[in-house]
Amino acid sequence: MAKQEDVFKKVISHAKEYGFIFPSSEIYDGLSAVYDYGQNGAELKNNIKQYWWKAMVQLNDNIVGIDSAIFMHPTIWKASGHVDAFNDPLIDNKDSKKRFRADVLLEDYCAKLEDKAQKEIEKAEKRFGDAFDKAQFESTNPRVLEYREKQSVILKRLARSLENNDLADVKALIEELEIADPDTGSKNWTDVRQFNLMFGTKLGAASENATDLYLRPETAQGIFVNFLNVQKTSRHKLPFGIAQIGKAFRNEIVARQFIFRMREFEQMEMQFFVPPGTELGYYEEWKQKRLNWHLALGLGRENYKFHDHEKLAHYANAAADIEFKFPFGFKELEGIHSRTDFDLSAHEKFSGRKLQYFDNERNENYTPFVVETSVGLDRLFLAIFSTCLKDEVLEDGSERTVLTLPPALAPVKAAILPLMKKDGLGEYGEKIFNDLKYDFNVIYEDKDSIGKRYRRQDAIGTPFCITVDHDSLTDHTVTLRDRDTMKQERVPVSDLRRIIDEKTNFRNLLSKI
């Protein structure tokens, strides 16, 4: 655990030191669980958005994208169930005065049980070597079975209690398991109570005439209320999807773990509208498609797993999370939900407008069912950043910190580094910079030794360093250094655009999906 905490601290420190993420309003001592993306963070974030948008909208001829407003009519949130049901179970520790989500305390307890099971598996793997049959061991080892059975019992009881709003049983379960405040060890808990997560605001110039609004807690409703507008203007037949990237806001009880859980965050969502009765087939299809999209990033298959929901939301008939192994354990990265026809039917009821589709093949009108894919952009940023941040010991015994980002996502694609600014090297480097900047985000740097400049570029994940020396002025070649292999080769300046494009083009990622 201490090692995991150290890794996470390094991630947070590196993100700030190299211009990826800063605490918001830092000169005023910050604002809890709100962060700003710095110059490199903004570039990486935008590249992640591009990867998602290209894969979702550009590669699918039956998916289109929109950008709906953050402010929406307040009745939308009544129809969606957020006014009445968008709550988290809150519990306070009487001694430490700290506040926690009761369900997260129990989920963290179960995660520790899974860690124990994994340790048993790892010990057996070392003991038996190549002869080890992991599947057989997991299905027969008494300790592994005991840990996993206990997890299952706890999570099923938690799901049942939350579904029945039996908050007393949630507290009883915490006490039975002797779960303590993770910071102080105190087990002196208050009763569990529900806490609505929506931020309220007002619309209007005069307070007495202002309309009460909410900052949207999710982006999906902007898609649902525009379903007919998009369907009619795009002329798409079912099945078809509507994608969106946008900000959402939640007044989290416990906002923690850096950018993993924030009060202002971005979602990348797609709602796929399908004929009733076909939704579970499309649900399974999108589960695999979304996993393949993540795997194309090359972060390691072992870092992903599916978690099927025990407790379904009021709108769903199937739901699963793609969980990722963050420095603090496996946590939700993306949700795939079969939302039935709940949303469109609810908006029909509350608005009095028909939101139906006429199916020529079936010769009938119906309210479409929906399969949703929803990934947290900030969580995905953290998954990529924390996994790609590595400390390496080189052959000569020296060390370097390198951010092995997929080249298409790298904030800077190439750095132009003249050995020195004088003797015309600076001017030649600037000429290369000015030529490449129309196609790529490149930088020019001439301060410090070339070795220090290499290290700085490694630390922000730049795939290529281009070194200009005296020979460049006569033979028009430069030294091209690869971030991952650190191999250096002499290449003509005229080939730079092609070489950089071949490695950093989004095609490299998209073709792997």
Task: Provide a descriptive summary of the structure in words.
The mean pLDDT is 92. Among the domains are: 87-195, no CATH class; 403-510, 3-Layer(aba) Sandwich (Rossmann fold), CATH 3.40.50. It is 40% helix and 25% strand. The strands form seven sheets. The chain has a seven-stranded mixed sheet, with helices on both faces. By secondary structure, it is of the alpha+beta class. It is built from 18 helices and 23 strands. One of its GO terms (biological process) is glycyl-tRNA aminoacylation. Homodimer. It catalyses: tRNA(Gly) + glycine + ATP = glycyl-tRNA(Gly) + AMP + diphosphate. Substrate binds at residues 101, 218, 265-269, 372-376.
Summarize the structure.
By secondary structure, the chain is of the alpha+beta class. It has 18 helices and 23 strands. Helix content is 40%, strand content 25%.
What is this structure's SSE topology?
Elements: H1 2-17, E1 21-23, E2 35-37, H2 39-58, E3 63-66, H3 75-79, H4 82-85, E4 87-92, E5 99-101, H5 102-128, H6 134-140, H7 142-163, H8 167-176, E6 193-196, E7 200-203, E8 211-214, H9 220-224, H10 227-234, E9 240-249, E10 264-274, H11 279-295, E11 304-308, E12 318-326, E13 329-340, H12 342-351, E14 357-359, E15 364-366, E16 369-376, H13 377-388, E17 389-393, E18 399-403, E19 414-418, H14 425-436, E20 442-444, H15 450-460, E21 464-468, H16 472-475, E22 477-482, E23 488-492, H17 496-504, H18 507-510
Helix pairs in contact: 2-13, 5-7, 5-8, 7-8
